[in-house]
Design goal:
By secondary structure, the protein is of the alpha/beta class. 46% of the residues lie in helices and 10% in strands. The protein folds into 2 domains: 47-108, Multidrug-efflux Transporter Regulator, Chain: A, Domain 2 (Orthogonal Bundle), CATH 1.10.1660.10; 119-394, Rossmann fold, CATH 3.40.50.300. It has helices spanning 14-31, 49-56, 60-68, 87-100, 105-108, 129-142, 157-160, 166-171, 178-181, 211-220, 227-240, 258-266, 278-300, 322-335, 348-355, 365-368, 370-394, and strands at 47-48, 76-77, 83-85, 119-125, 147-151, 195-196, 202-205, 247-251, 269-274, 309-314. Strand 6 and strand 7 (202-205) form a beta hairpin. 39% of the residues are buried.
């Protein structure tokens, strides 16, 4: 194949040669017709009658009677007549119960009502962002909220948990949020990059290696591509699908970047993860300084920045470790009520689920050990319950923190 000649000097530059290699590889692979933008097939398990009763906060006997009377969705009958429901059927049960018990409609169908604004939560800063974004999005979906998860990580770790391969999406064209905020004629609607997931009520904008191009273009065209313009594009894109969702969960990339700062600026609330280790706390402090500078620059232009909340979450916490106990106390002394009461405990069950590219919500207790499963689920559910209470407070609703977030034993 003849090498292209640069019109500027008659000889191909190093950058042009590298780009040619990349384009040639992409062209040859795409020519083979590989379906890069299709996810691995994933399904969500059914939930036992006991789990459904806990999710909906109703008695198992009342659900059993509904099934006997032929009311609501028809559950699957297993061995010994055991009933189980898919997540879609759980949501159908929500709709039925909300209609049958109008005084408890908000309890069963927590979707936002007229006048309640969309909550855009950026999960930012320290390690633990991916599992935090994953369990928050899935936990809220299990509770009946309509969720849009946006993966801004070029490695697309969150997307992989929903079956969207990072390698595949890296080769896809206009397959991520980059397609929505890019600064050329190829910009597209957010509707074209939203993908369904195996969780009913939870959609995803997958991550992609294309997101790296944003940083390159932002720095290259810093004079014409202003942060406020990009933020405006992101906000406008989300507003385009505003009526379809209650909460947007944005999974930020694992580094300080203009894209992350844009996502944080576009959010209505920020959830900062931090591990109870001094180096991680120092890293969080540095992030907060960058965050502060971003807000200050906006304030100087006469555009005040206001969040519904900025909260901090301790992840990978070993409550039996004395030094970690002291570190959590240090955090609580500095952050006060902005540090969530619940912490996400370090758990072999969570790690085993991650190894299988699944979440605990997708596995039964027997798959990872009942004791470890229930302990981890309690930690996760308590965290999600606090975040749900924050959302309810923003919407002007009463607290329901005593309820569990999903299957598994949980206490707030």
């Amino acid at each position: 194949m003849p090498q292209p000649i640069s019109p500027s000097c008659g000889k191909e530059t190093t950058s042009e040669r590298i780009r040619r290699y990349g384009n040639e590889l992409l062209h040859r692979v795409l020519a083979r017709g590989t379906p890069f933008n299709h996810p691995h097939h994933m399904t969500l398990r059914s939930f036992s009658l006991g789990e459904v009763a806990e999710i909906l906060d109703v008695s198992g006997s009342s659900l059993r009677q509904l099934s006997i009377d032929g009311l609501g969705p028809t559950p699957e009958l297993g061995t010994a007549g055991r009933r189980s429901y898919t997540l879609r059927q759980i949501n159908e049960l929500r709709a039925y119960l909300a209609s049958a018990r109008p005084k408890e409609a908000l309890k069963f169908c927590p979707r936002r009502r007229e006048g309640e604004k969309l909550q855009i939560i950026s999960v930012a800063s320290g390690r633990g962002r991916t599992p935090t974004a994953l369990y928050l999005a899935q936990g809220l979906a299990l509770q009946g909220f309509r969720i849009l998860a946006i993966d801004l990580d070029p490695e697309s770790w969150l997307s992989e948990m929903f079956g969207y391969s990072s390698n595949a999406l890296g080769l896809g064209r206009n397959a991520s949020m980059y397609a929505v905020i890019r600064d050329d004629d190829c910009r597209t609607s957010i509707r074209s990059v939203i993908r369904s997931t195996h969780f009913d009520g939870l959609d995803l904008v997958p991550g992609s290696h294309e997101l790296n191009l944003f940083e390159y273009e932002y720095n290259r065209h810093s004079e014409t591509l202003k942060g406020s313009d990009v933020r405006g594009r992101m906000v406008s894109a989300i507003k385009e699908v505003d009526e379809n969702y209650d909460v947007v969960v944005i999974h930020c990339a694992p580094k300080y970047s203009d894209l992350n700062l844009t996502a944080i600026e576009a959010a209505t609330g920020v959830l900062v993860t931090v591990r109870p280790q001094l180096p991680d706390i120092a890293s969080t402090g540095r992030f907060l300084n960058i965050f502060s500078n971003l807000v200050a620059s906006r304030e100087k232009t006469g555009t005040p920045v206001s969040y519904d909340f900025i909260k901090f979450l301790v992840t990978r916490h070993d409550p039996r470790d004395v030094s970690q106990q002291e570190t959590v106390a240090l955090l609580r002394g500095s952050l006060g009520d902005d540090l969530l009461t619940a912490t996400v405990w370090i758990s072999d069950a969570i790690q085993e689920a991650r190894r299988r590219k699944r979440s605990l919500y997708e596995l039964s207790a027997g798959a990872v050990g009942r004791s470890a499963y229930e302990q981890a689920m309690e930690s996760l559910n308590s965290t999600n319950a606090e975040v749900m209470d924050i959302i309810r407070e923003v919407w002007g609703r009463p607290s329901q923190a005593s309820r569990s977030t999903a299957a598994g034993k949980a206490k707030s």
